[in-house]
Amino acid sequence: xxxxxxxxxxxxxxxxxxxxxxxxxxxxxxxxxxxxxxxxxxxxxxxxxxxxxxxxxxxxxxxxxxxxxxxxxxxxxxxxxxxxxxxxxxxxxxxxxxxxxxxxxxxxxxxxxxxxxxxxxxxxxxxxxxxxxxxxxxxxxxxxxxxxxxxxxxxxxxxxxxxxxxxxxxxxxxxxxxxxxxxxxxxxxxxxxxxxxxxxxxxxxxxxxxxxxxxxxxxxxxxxxxxxxxxxxxxxxxxxxxxxxxxxxxxxxxxxxxxxxxxxxxxxxxxxxxxxxxxxxxxxxxxxxxxxxxxxxxxxxxxxxxxxxxxxxxxxxxxxxxxxxxxxxxxxxxxxxxxxxxxxxxxxxxxxxxxxxxxxxxxxxxxxxxxxxxxxxxxxxxxxxxxxxxxxxxxxxxxxxxxxxxxxxxxxxxxxxxxxxxxxxxxxxxxxxxxxxxxxxxxxxxxxxxxxxxxxxxxxxxxxxxxxxxxxxxxxxxxxxxxxxxxxxxxxxxxxxxxxxxxxxxxxxxxxxxxxxxxxxxxxxxxxxxxxxxxxxxxxxxxx
Length: 544
Prior knowledge:
Blueprint: E1 2-3, E2 6-7, E3 9-10, E4 15-21, E5 55-65, E6 68-77, H1 81-95, E7 105-110, H2 114-117, H3 119-133, E8 137-142, H4 148-154, E9 165-170, H5 172-189, E10 206-211, H6 217-223, H7 228-237, E11 241-250, E12 253-258, E13 261-265, H8 266-275, H9 283-295, E14 299-307, H10 326-337, H11 351-364, E15 380-393, E16 417-423, H12 427-439, E17 449-461, H13 465-472, H14 479-488, E18 495-497, E19 500-502, E20 507-518, H15 529-536, E21 537-538
Parallel strand pairs: 7-8, 7-9, 9-10
Antiparallel strand pairs: 1-2, 3-21, 4-5, 5-6, 11-12, 11-20, 13-15, 13-18, 14-15, 14-17, 15-16, 16-17, 17-20, 18-19
């Protein structure tokens, strides 16, 4: 395009929409002064102005900083309304191209109680106008109860094959509800029974999230901010990123899917206590967290985990997951080639992992060994000990309160999860762990912490005589330890599964590589932000 002596280009991938605007045509006017003489013999003409618009505005994306996106209008003036209409039609048709994969029909679920009961207003004021600008047809549903959205999806009440995506306006709990409903529907539609160690199938449609909850971990981790407008624009542009999903089994029975945190001990106790104090609002989490910290409970258990076959990948490797991440791209390509292929590899432990394990034994009195039977793969390990916390994360779990997240170098789509085991320790030691976690500081030098990148893991509490008999059959476990276990195993914790309580402590968890796709692109590398700003519209201009 050529405007006012400047050649400027707009990247269609960054265009939100286009709309007609009325720009007054420039015309010469006659002005008569006080003493002006008017020749009555000269005829006067009235210039006819077109009723239709003489210009149009293209709405593009700008990046003011901190991973936030905003809209900017670039206006163009045409010679006549017909030419204006042609430009608008041409741009709209170009944006509908399959190459852009932009959604045309969406189902939007809104939790009216999210965001201090402001979710509905937030959607109508900030989200809906942008959807209308982008010519997206929306089916709007306000949820009336817990699991309302999940039930609608499982029952196929929405004819999912006719839509391009699902959008949930709420917090992480709302997303979990939509995720579980979509994956269960997909399995049922293909006559797949959700049972122990089944292989879930990736759905064809994407999920978008408009952050409106007390926690917006998934949005923050996949976009770098919990900003409503930014998330809406990612949906409009048709951005797409695959994220890993866990299948969680309790007592060998499938119960649900998880994408953020699975926490036993401290995180489980915190959630269970806070559920009884909902009347306190969001402040209940701080109260329950303090209470659980002061209690400093530790729980006996046995953890079996299968290490990632990539010995170079580790929770402390300082390799961050940004948009276009090479690690996630390679994992996605490998997964797409053969989703049914079982990974068989010679287990190799890095020196770092072996050193960690050696220090960890001092606190947990644990024994690491290769297992037999169903755990014959040499990548399998087992740890027996007393734990303040056992946490598994499938993404970094970044949020406004802790931008680095629980595991800053965890990847969105590498087909792995980071397993963090905190052995019994003093309150001061555990506080040190919590503070370092919140600030994203190094934790590998804490000898009561062990972190591994794993494909799957299982946990069972050591509370029953049958468990003790099973343990006693393993080698290299001192008799004194068995007696100690039997005397002190009277309590168990619960699991915090994406903010939902799982009461049964015995679970097994597997990760499924990039099982679900979101309307997002991952956190953009800050070093590339300036280039993206310049390339969006060069040179910058508002009017023409």
